[in-house]
Amino acid sequence: MRAVDTNLVVLLFVQDEAEQVKAARQALTTDTIFIPKSVIVEFEWVMRGAYRESRAAIASAIEAILATANVEVEDAAAVTRAVDWFRRGMDFADALHLSSSSHVDCFVTFDTAMRRRARALAVKPEVIAP
Questions:
Q1: Would you write out the chain's pLDDT as a tens digit for each of its 130 residues?
Q2: Residue 27 Cα distances to 20, 23, 32, angstroms
Q3: pTM (two decimals)
Q4: CATH number attached to the domain at 2-128
């Protein structure tokens, strides 16, 4: 099993450097691949910030990663929940923080926008102010 960095995953979706795309594709198809959820967070950030991809395109890309047969994503259930909440308007990093905390009673933050979005989506755990 191999773990991969964000730049390999990004290259497969943006296809902007032919030689690197070829090398990335080969690296990602020769073995079982492990993708840490931190790579998924960074992938979303790069696709949104550097490539100006839409929320829908990013969510679809992450879902494609999750559905790839030889890919194991860390805490795939939490990533799947986060993608759903992201599609419904929550910031992806906030959604992943929250979905990774499903075993707790509440999530405490000063982020009023996160609290408001979580309340509107009725996600669990409850997001509260300190």
A1: 999 999 999 988 888 888 888 888 888 788 899 999 999 999 999 999 999 999 999 999 999 999 998 999 999 999 999 999 999 999 999 999 999 998 999 999 999 999 999 999 999 999 999 9
A2: 10, 6, 10
A3: 0.90
A4: 3.40.50
**Total residues belonging to the chain:** 130
Q: Tell me the two tokens of residue 116.
A: 């408001």
Residue appearing with tokens 């032919």: 18
Query: How far apart are alpha carbons 90 and 21 in whole angstroms?
Result: 31
Q: Are 49 and 55 in contact (CB under 8 A)?
A: no
User: Where do the structural domains in the chain lie, given as residue ranges?
Assistant: 2-128
